Amino acid sequence: MANPHDHRPGDPHSLHPSDAEERLWHKAAGVPLVDLAQISSHYGATVALENVSLKIWPGQFMALVGPNGGGKTTLLRTILGMVPASSGKVLLRGRPLTRSALDRIGYVPQLETIDWNFPITVEEVISMGFFVKNRWFGGIGEKEKRKLDNVMERLNLGGLGKRHIRELSGGQQQAVFIGRALLGDPELILLDEPASGLDIRSRDDVIHFLHEINHQGVAVVLTAHDLNWVAAHLPWAVCINHRLIAEGRPNEIFNAEVLREAYSGELVVFHQDGMVMIGERPHAPHI
Amino acid sequence: MSIFVPFEYEFFRNGFIAAVVIGALCGFIGVYVVLRRMSYIGHGLSHAIFGGAVLSYVWNVNFFIGGGLWALLSGVLIHWISHRRWVGADAAIGVVTTSSFALGVAIISTHRTFTRNIEAALFGNILGITQRDVWIVVLVSLLVAAALFLIRRPLLFATFDPEVASAYGVSTGKIDLFFIMLLAATVLASTQILGVTLVAAAMVIPPVIARYMTQRFQTLLIVSPLIGAFCGAAGMFLSFSLDISSAATIVLTSAALFGLLELTLIARRKKAAMGDH
Fold this sequence. Notes:
- The complex is a heterodimer of chains A (287) and B (277).
- Chain A is 31% helix and 25% strand.
- Chain A is α/β, with parallel strands linked by helices and 287 residues long.
- Chain A has a single domain (4-280), classed as Rossmann fold (3-Layer(aba) Sandwich).
- In chain A, strand 7, helix 7 (200-215) and strand 8 (219-224) form a beta-alpha-beta unit.
- In chain A, helix 6 runs parallel beside helix 7 (200-215).
- Chain A starts with 16 loop residues before the first helix and ends in a 7-residue tail after the last strand.
- Chain B is mostly helical.
- The N and C termini of chain B lie far apart (48 Å).
- Chain A binds chain B through residues 80-82, 99, 102-103, 107, 109, 113-115, 118-121, 124-125, 128, 131-132, 135-136, 138, 162, 164, 184, and chain B through 35, 150-151, 153-154, 156-157, 160-161, 163-164, 166-170, 211, 214-218, 220.
């Protein structure tokens, strides 16, 4: 398993070598943002996570990959305190999980869980992000309005505030929920399958937003199914199937052995121009 | 007939104020009821209150106190049962509300002396509203509206995106319970006016009509109570002119408005389709 501390500056396999290096070296010292130590969790008798240990460092950009039901979403929910770990420890900035510590973590759910017929505008959804800092009585004053406009501009949502969320493209819809997470000034954003169900253009928009956010120092952890998308855009990947199978740079850990263990199937892995590509092996020979 | 003629009668003045206030309140809380897909709870709670109303008569307790306690107890029970993992909210409502309604019916069958009062509880008796009742209705409405305003941020978050709301620190369970209690208070205040059988309509139809008019949540919170208040007022006038039950007329007015809107939309769509060809 690769260790982030072993990273070599100037690695030709990195798509964004200088950024990746900067981020990786940032975390060489200090306390991890999130430290999961031998976490296990269960849904009734079903094991969701088994002895998973993982550290998320400030400014890190990481993908969690693995099969459906392999524990990716449970891992995100464990960090958020929504799923209690049956054993092990979750530390945020070196301290036990508390409500106030969670205020610096933004969460973006799967778009499939959203009721798109709900009568709500782009601005109204993003404004929910103020709830983290101003729970009950705060209205939206001049300062908040400026911040809202600023976030919307950053996510290319300027001028769309009064639109209904259904009237946006897939990428813009994802940007709305990223915007909501950003309003709480998080140091870490967790995204559950942000590329799921999006076309290539929208996926490109989303990864562009996430890179920008990450460049401003926010750690980003997302779950994903498309290994090629992860390999092309993310500097770090964690492969889990109830337990942690491998962690490292995608072009190092996406190999036949790791993928066989994670997905219980044969996948074809090949390298081209410094990129790793994963393909499915057909069950029957072509006629 | 001048529209001021009915106001010469005190029973109409009292009934009119109560119908407008309750129409607005039901329209307001109804926005959340519809968006949280809790229409069945509104319907169920009103039936549950029937049991409390009957017991209040039997034990000679003030309806608002007896029925109120019963409504709160039913709301808490529904909330508690529906949060058991193996029981759905619809089944929980079914169990609690039908049992409570059945209790009311069982007691009636043994005490046949208060049939008139029970009819009022079932179908409403807006023309029997006293000035004291009006004050109670206004007070309950103000309290419920103020409470809804106070919890508007977590309530909207928990209504739109409950999973993320809890990740952001919204106590969704407590918000749900508090909302059911506010709903119970609304149903209680509305029962004397609309009757247990028609309360749910006042909470569901105005927000549904308002949904046709706006895509903005904040606007919905303004439009829906206005529609509720309008239907209350128009229903009272029609009831006076046509000599039909007030509660039924109020609900039929809102249903007619809904039908009219739907027909207008169908006609507009047809016209647009013809224009395309």
